[in-house]
Each structure stands twice: as structure tokens, then as C-alpha cells.
Amino acid sequence: MEQGESIKESVIREYREETALRLQDPELIGAFTFSIYKNQSIIQEWMMFTFICKSYEGKLTDYCEEGELEWIPLENIKNLPMAEGDREIYEHVLTSKAILYGAFSYTEGYELLEAQLDPFNN
Questions:
Q1: pLDDT average, residue stretch 37-65
Q2: What domains appear along the chain, each with residue ranges and CATH number?
Q3: Edge to edge, what strands does the sheet with 112-118 contain?
């Protein structure tokens, strides 16, 4: 996020910078805290806000500094390599309209230690 920017303004800007697409009315679907532990101490911590958006303007860029961009069919998302907590987030996003709040704890090797999710029954 940039100074003075809302999280919605941030997702629109970041998405446009990385894809050349302008999101049309993205909706917040999740807010999460991630904590990375080494032994019993937190060595990293951050927040992530997850949005869903069903429409956009523009043409997908051919190059992105963040990595290769491609459209993935929804039914194939579960087969992608990702952190175990991300699987729970995707499952929620693809099956519910409620906002999900959560906290994930990982080892420094990104092994999931604990996931606290609210609502628990999506």
C-alpha cells in the first residue's frame, strides 16, 4: 500500500501495475494475518487482504516483473502449488460470499502450524 491509499485503491493500483488490467468494483472477501515462527519466536508477520472481482477493463500485459501471468480455469486452482493456508482461502473464495477473517501460523519453512478462521462454517 502507498501512503494515504485505501486497501481497495491499493488492489486496483497493484493489479493494474502488474497486469495492465483495471479492476471494476473489487470486493473484499478476506482479511488475514500471517506469522512465521522460528522456534517460539515470530520472525516475520504481515497482513493480506483478499478481493474478488468479476469484471475488468483492458488487455492483459505480455510481461510482468512478478512472474508469468496466465488465466487458470477455476476448477484447476486446487491443483496449483501453494501454501496450505492459501488452499483454505481459495476454497472459501470459490464457495462463499461471506468475508473470511483468519490468522495463519507457519514455520520458517512454511509448514502450516495453525489456521484460525472466522466464519468457521463457510
A1: 95
A2: 7-118 (3.90.79.10)
A3: 41-52, 27-38, 100-107, 112-118
